[in-house]
Amino acid sequence: MTDLSHGKTYPPPPEWQPRAWVNPQTSREMYDASIADPELFWDEHGQRIDWFKPYTRVKNTSFAPGAVSIRWYEDGVTNAAYNCIDRHLETRADQVAIIWEGDDPSESKHITYQELHDEVCRFANVLRNRNVGKGDRVTIYMPMIPEAAYAMLACARLGAVHSVVFGGFSPDSLAGRIEDCGSRVVITADEGLRGGRKVALKANVDAAIDRLPPGVDVDHVIVVRRTGANVAMDPLRDVWYDAAREMVTAECPCEHVEAEHPLFILYTSGSTGKPKGVLHTTAGYLVYTSITHKYVFDYHDGDIYWCTADVGWVTGHSYILYGPLTNGATTLMFEGVPNYPDMSRFWQVIDKHQVNTFYTAPTALRSLMQAGDAPVKATSRASLRLLGSVGEPINPEAWEWYHRVVGDDRCPIVDTWWQTETGGVLISPLPGATTLKPGSATLPLFGIRPELVDADGKVLEGEAEGNLVIADSWPGQMRTVYGDHQRFMDTYFATYPGKYFSGDGCRRDADGYYWITGRVDDVINVSGHRMGTAEVESALVAHASVSEAAVVGYPHDIKGQGIYAYVTLMSGVEPTETLRKELVGWVRQEIGPIATPDLIQFAPNLPKTRSGKIMRRILRKIAEDDFGALGDTSTLSDPAVVDELVNNRQNRR
Ligand code: 6R9
């Protein structure tokens, strides 16, 4: 087996020992105990959160085919906002909860736990005045401003279910998500601001609502003022948040909700069909994000912690807000981008706010790496103690650069593997305990039972490569696909009955370390964002000139994977450069900029089996420039199609 790290390993630095929550021995003991008696382990950690009514039953879960059911702490009663805010007030009212850093480096804010409480209560009252209550869905389409956090926590306070839609999604994508969960309230801002550029959020909401089918209604749009832009306001439907805020008090009781009450829906791409509404519930999710935030980031009181994700993704939910706030942490929220005003921005923010823990994505690191070491070295970063990575496999070169240049050879890196569906990190080093191997997410966290299986579901032992499944439930796991439990069971529990299938391939080395190799389904990972190839295909075929499309990923130096689209045009349509550009713009408009095709190849024919199935394996190989490995093409209905595709392939950038 090839060791991608060239055998180089990094033991935990000795200076970590006095302070770390766990060392190599205690972490192993804790892991073993969590597997030997999950009930006992998760009962103990159920105490991480406060309960209005304590639970008596810890775990009631089944991965049984056709009867998947996941319930944790089911008879307990609690509230997520209470755990993130109210319970800290006695000891932390004046401690900073959120440090907000604006897109413009001259703008930042410190929000204490008391201020967070007051703002969340006000937001909750504004929602309550618009009839939002327990179980109602609220769509949040916001820039990275404190009001996004207030809005999410306000929903939690009322027992309403938030569905955050990333601000980079198009009106169409937003409309689909509003419709799927039936939100009657949308929270947005006049405009977003990223890298000095404005994003027309309110206009997108208007366009999305215009597209809703008859019978699907949005009653209220709450608009936070961010840039002060002059936006259209429908007097019957739209309200400025600042005006509504003036009308309410800073007191709002927390709704008491059952442990399994839905906390949020987050849409994510899969290999087929429309994005799925991943549903997370209250207590188990909080317990899991809080325990993982504590141990993975070795979080101690007083630490300044920064996760650079957007709240539109699960990483923002779990590790900007819910995990850190449950732990009473100080969490930094950043509105901007890594290269604005210049390539030093991340490191300047670290110095400005004396950040101790920094958590980002490999794609950001790879693009910063290209600018060389100087923009990093121009800053001190002396406050940094720990670095983290998430979203996609981190290549050993980027890992080494992160360690050597950003961390001055001093800071461990936690490469955290997880998914929207898993709620929190499942495989990751613990900085005081785990010897690191660059490129490996290393070992499972407490309570997690990963297995590698072959195509037939046979469990592989020892050193092996296969598909990554998880053999038993953990509290942070998604509970269902919103409104479609059958789809939940079919997607995650049918491939390997009785096990949760992640969709990722993985190797395990002789030390038991896990090396995620990437998706094994038709999902591609573009700059750490998940994209279903089927989604891009259906956007393309919705264009009048396109008769058929097949989309695959290909290796991309910065994005990890790029989007390669093979497009067959309607007969009589000329394949021109203008049309190529139009199609790129079309997909951006249909889904959003994150789905922008990098390469479009016009293909008069696509390789198909005799039964008419597109042979994606071959398309992937051509996109990868791997022509030697096209494999068996004899089952194609017309093998000559392949030569034509190879001859006309788009050059990789
Ligand atoms: C948290 C998040 C999940 C997919 C996942 C995998 C990839 C995430 C990774 C990683 C290798 C890591 N992924 N973290 N691959 N090493 N440390 O990213 O959730 O957007 O749902 O994506 O991302 O392929 O299946 P999500």
TrEMBL record:
Mg(2+) binds at residues 541, 543, 546. CoA binds at residues 194-197, 315, 339, 527, 588. Its EC number is 6.2.1.1. GO terms for biological process: acetyl-CoA biosynthetic process from acetate. Coiled coil: none annotated. Residues 535-613 form the AMP-binding enzyme C-terminal domain. The modification N6-acetyllysine is found at residue 613. Signal peptide: none annotated. One of its GO terms (molecular function) is acetate-CoA ligase activity. Belongs to the ATP-dependent AMP-binding enzyme family. Catalyzes the conversion of acetate into acetyl-CoA (AcCoA), an essential intermediate at the junction of anabolic and catabolic pathways. AcsA undergoes a two-step reaction. In the first half reaction, AcsA combines acetate with ATP to form acetyl-adenylate (AcAMP) intermediate. In the second half reaction, it can then transfer the acetyl group from AcAMP to the sulfhydryl group of CoA, forming the product AcCoA. This is Acetyl-coenzyme A synthetase. It comes from Camelimonas lactis. The gene is acsA.
